Amino acid sequence: MNRIILISIFSILTFNVMAQEKIVQTAGRTQLGEFAPKFAELNDDVLFGEVWSRTDKLGLRDRSLVTITSLISQGLTDSSLTYHLQEAKKNGITRTEIAEIITHIGFYAGWPKAWAAFRLAKDVWAEETAGEDAKAAFQREMIFSIGEPNTAYAQYFTGNSYLAPVSREQVNISNVTFEPRCRNNWHIHKATKGGGQMLIGVAGRGWYQEEGKPAIEILPGTVIHIPANVKHWHGAAADSWFAHLAFEIAGENASNEWLEPVTDEEYDKLK
């Protein structure tokens, strides 16, 4: 049954990833529609409507990388580069990555061109913090959304966590993301019959531990079966973001009992 669920989930996600994403562009017609209508048509309908939209062949993030590399190498540091830097940020390129990209380009295209590009890039990524940078980089590692801050259960977590519903029909599935060192409290999934929970590692590295037993490392693809009425906790490793799918197992008289936090002393024993 678990294997069927996994195959179904990843089949759907693979289809979604491979599907083309239609890019809509109107800048050509807006700026040059009357003066150069054919150029405007080629810009909006062919360059963006066809070439940029072939995301099943090359993703938007990689197309942004190719484009900004080409523009910087030519020394074009005008509004067109600013636009493509903004699009690169939207397409998932982080502050750390753009700094490394422009530095790399500088060795091949010329130091002055890199300097000019950095002046624009600093403005585009001005508000992005190191924490947001790491979060954005982690999002690219997995096919599920990080989701929103897990405020409803924040009192039962040490550190910041995020929650993204995956399914609320047939099987209740959520993607739970933990920042480094984040973990939930000791807790018990209670049930008089059935119940419990199943976890599947999605990205990063984390831990699962039952009371009185050694912790188990969770990596992408690791499956953890949590019986009902067993005290346990799970969360991220100290040096890694971590995400897992959580499958709620149906049971009679099911409820969750949240207990004490996992202390730093307990947590720091894990390596």
The gross shape turns out to be elongated
Beginning-to-end CA distance, first to last residue: 33 Å
Strand order of the largest sheet: 1-3-4-13-8-11
Strand content: 15-25%
Poorly predicted runs are: 2-18
Structural class: alpha+beta
Average pLDDT, to the nearest integer? 89
Helical segment tally? 9
How many strand units? 15
Number of domains: 2
Largest sheet: 6 strands, antiparallel
- Helical amount: 25-40%
How would you describe this structure to a colleague?
With 271 residues, this protein is of the alpha+beta class. It folds into two domains: 115 residues, AhpD-like; 120 residues, Jelly Rolls (Sandwich). 40% of the residues lie in helices and 23% in strands. The protein is built from nine helices and 15 strands. It has a six-stranded antiparallel β-sheet with strand order 1-3-4-13-8-11, with no helix packed on it. A three-stranded antiparallel β-sheet has the order 10-9-12, with no helix packed on it. It has a two-stranded antiparallel ribbon with strand order 2-5. Strand 3 and strand 4 form a beta hairpin. Helix 4 packs antiparallel against helix 5 and helix 6 runs antiparallel to helix 7. The longest helix is centred in the first third of the chain and has 17 residues. The chain is elongated. It starts with a helix and ends with a helix.
